Amino acid sequence: MTLSDSSPQSSWFLSLKQAWRSVLKAIADLRLAIILLLLIALFSISGTIIEQGESLSFYQANYPEDPALFGFLNWQLVLALGLNHVYSTWWFLSLLVLFGTSLTVCTFTRQFPALKAAQRWQFYRKSRQFKKLAFSINLDPIPLEKLTPLLEQKGYKVFQEGQMLYARKGIIGRIGPIVVHAAMLIILGGAIWGALTGFLAQEMVKSGDSFQVKNIIEAGPLAKGNVPKDWGIKVNRFWIDYTPKGAIDQFYSDLSVIDNQGKELDRRTIHVNEPLRHKGVTFYQTSWGISAVRVQINNSPIFQLPMAPLKAEGGGKIWGTWIPTKTDLSEGVALLTKDLQGTMILYDQQGNLNNAVREGSSINVNGVTLKIYELIGSTGLQIKADPGIPFVYTGFGLLMLGVMMSYVSHSQIWALQEDSEIQNKNVVNPLYLGGKTNRAQVAFERELVSIVETLKVSSR
To answer: What domains appear along the chain, each with residue ranges and CATH number?
Structure first.
């Protein structure tokens, strides 16, 4: 039993089929793809302008409610829209998925059919068909057989059937757009995978200490398995190189990758733009600080005091600590320094300048001998894992390849020698020749003119 075409079930099926085609057509629309691409670019730019992954106090200080930036952008809007972590928000990932869907549908509904059509050859059987071509010519009686070797010399693949000929080259130019679409899908997939499985962490670690990644400030919902648990990092040493004028030239961290038993697995000295990479996790040198100072009072044991960052005029960095000079902590001096070059300033309890001291030197203060042994620096590390990066790099490589392939012209040539009503084998009929290309029109026409001139010369 079959359903009649006029049955309700059949009508419903046809309506559903038409609706589905309409949806696919709308998704594959170039205008939608352009709008999505512009939105992705716009929000990506916002992610570079608005600092990502900072604390609440940072956004409250830099994006106040009054006056709001641009008259509307305040910290509440930044947090509500997720502009503090743009690349992992649901709406940004949805834009990527929708754009990827548009590319996929366009590839299967337009690019693959175009490639399939380009692979088919179709002979022209009537001379009037040549009139619709961008370039066509009617030559004096020239044997069709003389055309084939000329086209093959130019790189054309020739198909011939009787007095009809079809030739093409540059089919790779039709494959290029498909490669471009596939590359963009790989890039989008890598970005989405990185957002779901990656994490970002920051650590401030004292020179000589070891740590495991814990201070995670941003992570995807599937990132837990990528946070290292069976290995950590030891900061063997942190130091700063200064210019002759006293400015910071570069700061370095000598890092070791260690397992849970303390065995060294890898080692590298990092600085800005030269990170350490281990098992998909990258450690960047981003900042520095002064964590502690080692001192001795008279003949006491050497002890270590923590140093805290202090606010300085002009936005400069300065660190300080309090050094007691009596056991009951009733007297002491404040020690301040701005860098690791070794020069420190002492102030008394009334805030008056007492003296200056350098590493390894001693000074008398409040009736005791104070010796400064060492300033201990701390390194600021940014730790990042993004499993999507290999896919993104692969996608960009394919994208460049696809773009170059797309610039190859797909050229087609037809030729026809119509049958004559005169049954004379010695009579050669007129030769119709024409062709078209999808780009580089002038170069294609010059190529055809060259072929025609060669044919004329060979037929004299």
So the answer is: 9-111 (no CATH), 124-170+409-458 (3.30.1370), 196-289+381-397 (no CATH), 290-373 (no CATH)
